[in-house]
Protein backbone atom coordinates (compact mmCIF):
# COMPACT_ATOMS: atom_id res chain seq x y z
CA UNK A 1 0.00 0.00 0.00
CA UNK A 2 1.43 3.35 -0.99
CA UNK A 3 0.67 6.62 0.80
CA UNK A 4 -0.82 9.43 -1.26
CA UNK A 5 1.26 12.55 -1.68
CA UNK A 6 -0.86 14.65 0.69
CA UNK A 7 -1.74 15.22 4.34
CA UNK A 8 -5.03 15.80 6.11
CA UNK A 9 -5.98 17.83 9.18
CA UNK A 10 -8.36 15.14 10.41
CA UNK A 11 -9.12 11.54 9.50
CA UNK A 12 -12.20 9.88 11.05
CA UNK A 13 -12.64 6.10 10.90
CA UNK A 14 -15.96 4.60 12.03
CA UNK A 15 -16.14 0.90 12.97
CA UNK A 16 -12.43 1.22 13.73
CA UNK A 17 -12.34 -2.07 15.65
CA UNK A 18 -12.12 -3.70 12.23
CA UNK A 19 -8.61 -2.24 11.99
CA UNK A 20 -7.47 -5.15 14.10
CA UNK A 21 -4.31 -7.02 14.82
CA UNK A 22 -4.16 -10.21 16.86
CA UNK A 23 -1.36 -11.83 18.80
CA UNK A 24 -1.64 -15.60 18.30
CA UNK A 25 1.05 -18.15 19.00
CA UNK A 26 3.64 -15.46 19.62
CA UNK A 27 3.04 -13.96 16.18
CA UNK A 28 1.07 -10.82 15.29
CA UNK A 29 -1.50 -11.14 12.51
CA UNK A 30 -2.42 -7.79 10.94
CA UNK A 31 -5.53 -7.19 8.87
CA UNK A 32 -5.34 -5.10 5.70
CA UNK A 33 -7.50 -2.55 7.52
CA UNK A 34 -4.90 -2.34 10.29
CA UNK A 35 -2.23 -1.53 7.71
CA UNK A 36 -4.57 1.11 6.26
CA UNK A 37 -4.90 2.58 9.76
CA UNK A 38 -1.12 2.72 10.10
CA UNK A 39 -0.89 4.50 6.77
CA UNK A 40 -3.65 7.00 7.58
CA UNK A 41 -2.28 7.78 11.04
CA UNK A 42 0.95 8.93 9.42
CA UNK A 43 -0.89 11.24 7.04
CA UNK A 44 -2.87 13.26 9.55
CA UNK A 45 -2.33 15.36 12.63
CA UNK A 46 -5.62 14.26 14.18
CA UNK A 47 -6.74 10.63 13.89
CA UNK A 48 -10.18 9.79 15.31
CA UNK A 49 -11.09 6.11 15.66
CA UNK A 50 -14.73 5.42 16.48
CA UNK A 51 -15.91 2.05 17.75
CA UNK A 52 -18.56 0.71 20.10
CA UNK A 53 -16.31 -2.32 20.74
CA UNK A 54 -12.65 -1.25 20.85
CA UNK A 55 -11.64 -4.03 23.27
CA UNK A 56 -12.12 -7.74 22.52
CA UNK A 57 -11.03 -8.84 26.00
CA UNK A 58 -7.40 -9.46 25.02
CA UNK A 59 -5.01 -6.82 26.37
CA UNK A 60 -2.35 -7.60 23.76
CA UNK A 61 -4.81 -7.02 20.91
CA UNK A 62 -6.04 -3.82 22.56
CA UNK A 63 -2.48 -2.54 22.81
CA UNK A 64 -1.96 -3.21 19.11
CA UNK A 65 -5.17 -1.30 18.37
CA UNK A 66 -4.09 1.63 20.56
CA UNK A 67 -0.72 1.68 18.76
CA UNK A 68 -2.62 3.13 15.80
CA UNK A 69 -3.10 6.25 17.93
CA UNK A 70 0.22 6.32 19.76
CA UNK A 71 2.83 4.00 18.30
CA UNK A 72 5.53 5.06 20.76
CA UNK A 73 3.47 4.49 23.90
CA UNK A 74 2.02 1.15 22.82
CA UNK A 75 5.09 -0.23 21.04
CA UNK A 76 6.20 -3.81 21.50
CA UNK A 77 4.61 -6.96 22.83
CA UNK A 78 2.15 -6.44 25.69
CA UNK A 79 3.42 -7.66 29.05
CA UNK A 80 1.17 -7.81 32.11
CA UNK A 81 2.37 -5.45 34.83
CA UNK A 82 4.76 -3.63 32.49
CA UNK A 83 2.37 -1.96 30.09
CA UNK A 84 -0.29 0.38 31.37
CA UNK A 85 -3.91 -0.01 30.33
CA UNK A 86 -4.53 3.67 31.19
CA UNK A 87 -5.99 5.24 28.06
CA UNK A 88 -8.25 7.96 29.46
CA UNK A 89 -6.25 10.62 27.62
CA UNK A 90 -6.82 8.85 24.28
CA UNK A 91 -10.26 7.36 24.68
CA UNK A 92 -13.73 8.55 25.60
CA UNK A 93 -16.44 6.05 26.40
CA UNK A 94 -19.99 7.18 25.86
CA UNK A 95 -22.67 5.06 27.53
CA UNK A 96 -25.90 5.22 25.55
CA UNK A 97 -28.06 5.51 28.67
CA UNK A 98 -26.11 8.61 29.81
CA UNK A 99 -26.36 10.58 26.56
CA UNK A 100 -28.38 13.81 26.84
CA UNK A 101 -29.86 16.38 24.48
CA UNK A 102 -29.03 20.08 24.82
CA UNK A 103 -32.06 20.54 27.10
CA UNK A 104 -30.66 17.75 29.36
CA UNK A 105 -33.41 15.27 28.52
CA UNK A 106 -32.32 11.70 27.69
CA UNK A 107 -31.35 11.20 24.05
CA UNK A 108 -32.79 7.65 24.08
CA UNK A 109 -35.96 6.45 25.79
CA UNK A 110 -35.59 4.40 28.95
CA UNK A 111 -35.19 0.74 28.07
CA UNK A 112 -37.45 -1.60 30.00
CA UNK A 113 -36.25 -5.21 29.87
CA UNK A 114 -38.02 -8.15 31.43
CA UNK A 115 -38.04 -11.90 31.05
CA UNK A 116 -41.05 -13.60 29.55
CA UNK A 117 -41.57 -17.17 30.76
CA UNK A 118 -42.08 -19.77 28.07
CA UNK A 119 -42.24 -23.53 27.65
CA UNK A 120 -40.37 -25.59 25.08
CA UNK A 121 -41.78 -28.61 23.35
CA UNK A 122 -39.65 -31.76 23.69
CA UNK A 123 -38.29 -31.22 20.16
CA UNK A 124 -37.47 -27.55 20.89
CA UNK A 125 -35.77 -28.52 24.15
CA UNK A 126 -33.66 -31.13 22.33
CA UNK A 127 -32.64 -28.59 19.69
CA UNK A 128 -31.84 -26.00 22.36
CA UNK A 129 -29.74 -28.52 24.28
CA UNK A 130 -27.82 -29.55 21.17
CA UNK A 131 -27.16 -25.91 20.23
CA UNK A 132 -26.12 -25.01 23.75
CA UNK A 133 -23.75 -27.97 23.82
CA UNK A 134 -22.06 -26.85 20.60
CA UNK A 135 -21.70 -23.27 21.86
CA UNK A 136 -20.22 -24.43 25.16
CA UNK A 137 -17.34 -26.23 23.41
Automatic annotation (TrEMBL):
The keyword ATP-binding applies. Residues 1-72 form the Helicase ATP-binding domain. InterPro entries: Helicase_ATP-bd, P-loop_NTPase, SNF2-like_sf. Gene3D superfamilies: Tandem AAA-ATPase domain. One of its GO terms (molecular function) is helicase activity. The keyword Cell membrane does not apply. Keywords: ATP-binding, Helicase, Hydrolase, Nucleotide-binding. This is Helicase domain protein.
